[in-house]
Amino acid sequence: MSEPVFAVVGHPNKGKSSIVSTLARDDSVQIAPEPGTTTVCRRFPMRVDGRVQYVLVDTPGFQRARRALAWMRERETTAAEHRSVVEAFVDAHRGSDAFPDECELLTPVLEGAGILYVVDGSVPYGPEYEAEMEILRWTGAPSMALINPIGESDHIEEWRAALHQYFKVVRVFDALDAPFDKQIELLRAFGELREDWREPLAAAARTLAEERARVYTRVARALAEMLVDMLTYSATRRLSIGSDPSLFESTLEQEYKDALRERERKGRRAVELIYGHRSVQRQEGEVELLDQDLFSTDHWYFWGLSRRQLVATGAAGGALLGGAVDAGVGGASLLLGTLVGATVGGATALFGSGRLTRTRVAHLPLGGRLLRCGPTRNVNFPYVVLGRALYHHARVAGRSHANRDTLTLSADDAGESWLDRVDAGRRKALERCFRRLRDGDADVTEELVALLAPIVAQTDAAPGALQTT
Ligand SMILES: Nc1nc2c(ncn2[C@@H]2O[C@H](COP(=O)(O)OP(=O)(O)OP(=O)(O)O)[C@@H](O)[C@H]2O)c(=O)[nH]1
Ligand SMILES: [Mg+2]
Known about the structure:
The chain is α/β, with parallel strands linked by helices. The protein is 48% helix and 11% strand. The strands form 2 sheets. The chain has a 6-stranded mixed beta sheet, with helices on both faces. The radius of gyration is 29 Å and the shape is elongated. The relative contact order is 0.11. The model is unreliable at 282-289, 318-354 and 462-469 (pLDDT under 50).
């Protein structure tokens, strides 16, 4: 049997394309503030694992519904013939200039699509919609009305009363604020429209919920790879004989920081792609997705762990030891006096503020010297990276595919530290991985994936998603 198909129809500019975008989880649907954005029908299949679960058809809005209905009324005989009259209308006007939008939007319905009729619940109801609803009723197709509240005013009850005269099922569905579980719930309601759609749509709802659980593991892997990459990276430069290392320090440090920022950006992009937010890249040139810079240590206490939490994970003790070792190797550390000296005694560098890393000179086995910046041994740095990543994940996971606004993320809006949600046991386990990374053992990815998957699930804005099966 072919998959269920729904044509999303209505007045121009009421959020039809936005609803298609949200329910097909596809951010390539054309959406714009001007009416008349959609001019031809386009099918958007919702696929999971390559299998089409259902199809949404984006359509242009009605332009001349009253005149179209007048044409149909002139040819009306009995109610049993209503559908044939609509077919005759489309046949008579296809390719002409008289009713291009009506012909376009009615075609998928006459081909067997169910109807999702979209209205804006923030503007008052008016009789101008009645011709549209009447034409749709004449098609005899299974139908449902969706009230999409675009603005602030509330005319929902008024709409509900009017819509119920034409549609058995009426739902409020905000295209821009539709958490995953709300989408699943709507899918099940679609299943009520036609007997033979019930099972495929219930199966689609189950498949989507199962897919969501797999998504958490994929996100966990993206974050684990990003963390390993960022915590093991170092920037290096070979020094020519006799050159003064201090001349290259600041450029090397810059290179190191740029590379870490790039790795963080890559991780964010991976997460966005996992959720099918493909066009965020389009905005990336203009937008700093996390506008508090990774190295702006003023925000470290917010993104990372507090001193008390660091001590509880066991991170702080290890760092003290690390500091002492650094002090011991003496001449290997260029900035020893100013940095390590301050580090061992002061809590600043240990707990996250202060300088991230040191530049060191190493003597190469075959002669020559290597200037190296990183990897960082700062104990809070992994948590800062993780805290930012979890917040970004929550925003992406909860983002509607119809949302075309810039994704802005900042500590000021984040509300709470995202690591506070991670329980003490898990934090300790994370710390064991981070310590191994600091000690040069990069083989912790799988362990991190297992640890991070439930943490990622916790930060999904739609925690009910997993209980929908
Ligand atoms: N705030 C808010 N804006 C919405 C919502 N749904 C749609 N919009 C906005 O309304 C405008 C029109 O949305 P579209 O989805 O393009 O509407 P349409 O019905 O497909 O329009 P046409 O194709 O022109 O007929 C866009 O600027 C959307 O961002 C909503 O639920 N909330
Ligand atoms: Mg549109």
